[in-house]
Write a sequence for this structure.
């Protein structure tokens, strides 16, 4: 099976612009979650989508948004970019078969490295 | 969520066992301990998880103390490819796939 695919791998933007990142989960996985990773803050949860519905949301401003399509592919968008948004953005997928979703392993992509200048 | 504490870095000789400790003294009864690792420029990779009992899989063993306040990840025969940052984290019950990592332990396996 192909792994989680994230595009693009690297992105450079300027302050005030917006950006859209894409994630294709492992075939058959229905849950996609997004994370921001920075050296100072570590890995932080952004949001999770399951069957096209946002199921959980982390503590990020409304400039961060996402969506999931019927084929489970997901996109996240960041509007009005700030310097502090520079980070590695990671997408992870899981089967979504368990009712509690507690014991599911997450499979991560290699991430999109976003630099905001 | 319970907070975890790990040493910043550790070294291990190739072929020897690597024992990575994690403190999670505020863990609650229904929270699982998960371990992931991240090799440079890749996404995190799941290693193992457990609730109370010790667990073993093809990658590693997880030893959880009886009071569940700490755990140890054991890589039985470390190789150079095991050089990575290892994250111990606690998953909140019914919180879906919300995952948070702190600083982790940078393991350097040396020849």
């Amino acid at each position: 099976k192909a792994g989680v695919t994230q595009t693009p791998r690297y992105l450079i933007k300027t302050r005030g612009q917006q950006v859209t990142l894409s994630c294709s989960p492992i075939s058959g996985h229905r849950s996609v979650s997004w994370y921001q990773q920075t050296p100072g803050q570590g890995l932080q949860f952004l949001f999770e989508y399951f069957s096209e519905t946002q199921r959980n949301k982390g503590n990020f401003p409304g400039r961060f948004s996402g969506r999931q399509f019927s084929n489970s592919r997901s996109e996240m968008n960041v509007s009005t970019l700030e310097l502090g948004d520079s980070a590695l953005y990671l997408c992870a997928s899981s089967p979504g078969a368990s009712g509690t979703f507690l014991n599911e392993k997450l499979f991560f992509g290699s991430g999109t490295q976003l630099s905001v200048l | 969520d319970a907070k975890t504490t790990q040493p910043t870095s550790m070294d291990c000789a190739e072929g020897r066992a690597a024992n990575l400790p994690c403190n999670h003294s505020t863990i609650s009864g229904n929270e699982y301990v998960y371990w992931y690792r991240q090799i440079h420029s890749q996404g995190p990779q799941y290693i193992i998880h457990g609730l109370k009992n010790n667990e073993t899989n093809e990658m590693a063993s997880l030893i959880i103390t009886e009071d569940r306040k700490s755990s140890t990840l054991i890589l039985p025969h470390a190789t150079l490819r095991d050089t990575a940052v290892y994250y111990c984290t606690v998953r909140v019950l019914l919180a879906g796939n919300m995952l948070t990592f702190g600083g982790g332990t940078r393991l350097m396996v040396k020849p």
